Amino acid sequence: xxxxxxxxxxxxxxxxxxxxxxxxxxxxxxxxxxxxxxxxxxxxxxxxxxxxxxxxxxxxxxxxxxxxxxxxxxxxxxxxxxxxxxxxxxxxxxxxxxxxxxxxxxxxxxxxxxxxxxxxxxxxxxxxxxxxxxxxxxxxxxxxxxxxxxxxxxxxxxxxxxxxxxxxxxxxxxxxxxxxxxxxxxxxxxxxxxxxxxxxxxxxxxxxxxxxxxxxxxxxxxxxxxxxxxxxxxxxxxxxxxxxxxxxxxxxxxxxxxxxxxxxxxxxxxxxxxxxxxxxxxxxxxxxxxxxxxxxxxxxxxxxxxxxxxxxxxxxxxxxxxxxxxxxxxxxxxxxxxxxxxxxxxxxxxxxxxxxxxxxxxxxxxxxxxxxxxxxxxxxxxxxxxxxxxxxxxxxxxxxxxxxxxxxxxxxxxxxxxxxxxxxxxxxxxxxxxxxxxxxxxxxxxxxxxxxxxxxxxxxxxxxxxxxxxxxxxxxxxxxxxxxxxxxxxxxxxxxxxxxxxxxxxxxxxxxxxxxxxxxxxxxxxxxxxxxxxxxxxxxxxxxxxxxxxxxxxxxxxxxxxxxxxxxxxxxxxxxxxxxxxxxxxxxxxxxxxxxxxxxxxxxxxxxxxxxxxxxxxxxxxxxxxxxxxxxxxxxxxxxxxxxxxxxxxxxxxxxxxxxxxxxxxxxxxxxxxxxxxxxxxxxxxxxxxxxxxxxxxxxxxxxxxxxxxxxxxxxxxxxxxxxxxxxxxxxxxxxxxxxxxxxxxxxxxxxxxxxxxxxxxxxxxxxxxxxxxxxxxxxxxxxxxxxxxxxxxxxxxxxxxxxxxxxxxxxxxxxxxxxxxxxxxxxxxxxxxxxxxxxxxxxxxxxxxxxxxxxxxxxxxxxxxxxxxxxxxxxxxxxxxxxxxxxxxxxxxxxxxxxxxxxxxxxxxx
Length: 911
Known about the structure:
eight-stranded mixed beta sheet; eight-stranded parallel β-barrel
């Protein structure tokens, strides 16, 4: 999805750009963003939400298109601000009784930490005294003021945030304290003056004292943050469209930094790492919300709140139960306690790990909150793929150097790096890295994407590192307090004095929180063992996760329409694919059978000067090919096996032209040239092509080299006949590659049918072999109606079709310029990874329709790697294909997504 903004964003003058929290609901996420819609929903539920209003995503779109807010926006904001002031009994910026507000981003899809927030807006030199009197705490007022200048300076005025941090650290150092809560009112007052000086020096202007100017500039900053580099990068990573824009939420401030009877926290209705029910979250006394998310001070577990403030704890537990029942899902909640009064600041359906997603989905079914169809929609193929990754061998010898919070599971091994720049640089050089930080912030996103895993010494399950890592499926361990991280010296030190330097190998276990020095061996995932039949999901001691996966997969298999086959070239791969649930083979590449010891036989075939020599070479290959197919038909007995006849250029089976030329030249110089080498070089020169992928390959080989395809068809037919004589059930399908015109297919089909008839007569059996073709050229797709006259089936070869539609050589372009295309937003994702629906997909749709118009019973499948891509599987379901085929390890993912596509389509039809 391109990041380019929609050039046609227009709104009538009467459009409504601002909604009070009482006016919205959770179904208005497109307009109010996720945060605004959910604040409105909680308000409707009667929960304690501070009053406020939301500026819509439509206002943001107008601003991003024109560079100016909509003309009506200022008046609408003023109207809602007046209403808010009346409701609160305070005025924004009033000296003796100031109203303070927060300005927070809120896009339709959660983008944690990627866009901007400013708290305490409305404070100024004139009103800070009034806030102190209002709260009865001078320290609180000056702490709030320094926070405003720091956040506003960095976010709105683009001042380097390190300048504020350094001044804060110096103030603590001068006071002889280590945490900011130990600074008194006088210290903070001095710090405010320093912060204002930093703003003036860095921007050439004073910190704005007009509270409305503060608010308006903050709103603009939130709009602008939609197009920051980190926000664009996150959207590309998560495949979020770039033209949605963000809403802005203006909310009356409630304060968690009023003393020990106040605080702020983040809670989950279930553990986002495991899915288990219980009390999960973090709480920080005498703090504002950003302190928790940033991980600058270590929190206490949410369960400790029961001891600290039991009344607020009990009320929070009730609210969490209300929200989970209402949303019927894991909820992620932000709250503040202001002097014993609980306030809800946000809720959203929480990000969770892959394992938690499967567990929670089945738990909610058991609780009667959702049905199986909805449970299937709550998980996806990418999550299932994560669960199939290996995990650490707990029985292996490993040197544990620390332990933190298990924030996002997985087994990650790599070289230690201490900044995002190095993580990206080393990763691009092929190194696997672990990003180690005290705590991460949104500027670390590049490094987090590049790393195998993330390790922090601060923060908890709700810190920036944990939330973003879970969303990306990255292994993460947070809050490993016993590890001292020194980013300047690029090292990490344990309590026992062990030093990990940059470049040293470390291993982190996101399931246990353990950190190891060196590389820890891995073992197969229990989910893979389940798919391979080595773990029975119904056993009493079966892994809880395996049971959840089994239940959801069973439902997906019941409802899916698309069948799932495997790309497999030998009996071993075929057997594995069948264990993984394959319903046949959709692509057997026979060229893989010509490698190894058989390469010399192919050379003799190519070098044959006479018909007799060529026939002899083919006769030598025939029994070997037949043996291959017998093994394959045994492994897939009773299921279809699509065999693609030889496809690649023949010169791929010959020596490299440069190496052979050098060898011959050296031999000639020594006057001992080998006659065979000379003939081989002549053949290589003759077959050499400037662009072999568009040259003599596929069906063209079968037409140019007499007997080649006939030999392969005979091997298939004889193998099928022998299997049938052995009481087996072979179901072979013969596929002719790279057809561009029906005449090519007709010629090969006539020859193949003649060979099959001969084999049937010789063995006295009826084989019922089908013949079809790959649709991998644009011309084949455009003339599919004609080609269907001679084809029993089509299999879309979307790898080659993508290359020929785009004019891309996959082996070259992915390494040369795809990175730039992704960064510039030309691609949201590589067209070789997920099918290009508008271009390649259009040809697939049209070819499928034209083929079935000619032959209604035409079987349609896909055998490119797109067959195992989750998003592409949904497209193939919509396009009406009968099956997808993919590599064996992607079969479970394809099965799951085929079920999700069917359930989604059924849900759409019912609506």
